[in-house]
Automatic annotation (TrEMBL):
Signal peptide as annotated in the record: none
Superkingdom in the source lineage: Bacteria
Protein name, entry field: Paraquat-inducible protein A
One Pfam family named in its UniProt record: Zn_ribbon_LysW
Transmembrane segments: none
SUPFAM superfamilies tied to this protein: RING/U-box
């Protein structure tokens, strides 16, 4: 079994999963993205597929309303353009603002 590149569905960064780590992986295992800290559950081994369990805490991520691609933004940006499909939209920061008010 060869090393495998895994693209994080949250931040889009690619991580290398070593062959010896792949051999020990089981469905249900949880991996952490080195770039954004997202937790990814292994849902399939052949091919390797992961599902986001918890998004990372190191950035602010939005989902494109057109294509569903998840990407990082600076907090408070008034306009976002999806790097995947080019759609421009206004992010909804209300959930972030509500969390801030709770603290």
């Amino acid at each position: 079994m060869d090393d495998l590149e895994l693209t994080c569905p949250v931040c889009g960064e690619t991580s290398l999963v070593l062959a010896e780590d792949l051999a020990e992986l089981e469905e249900g295992a949880v991996l952490e993205c080195e770039a954004c800290g997202a937790y990814l559950e292994v849902v399939s081994l052949d091919p390797l597929e992961v599902e986001v369990v918890e998004e990372g805490l190191e950035g602010f991520f939005v989902d494109c309303p057109r294509c569903g691609y998840t990407f990082e933004l600076e907090e408070g940006e008034e306009e976002a353009t999806c790097p995947e499909c080019g759609f421009t939209f206004t992010p909804d920061w209300s959930e972030i603002e509500e969390e801030d008010e709770e603290w």
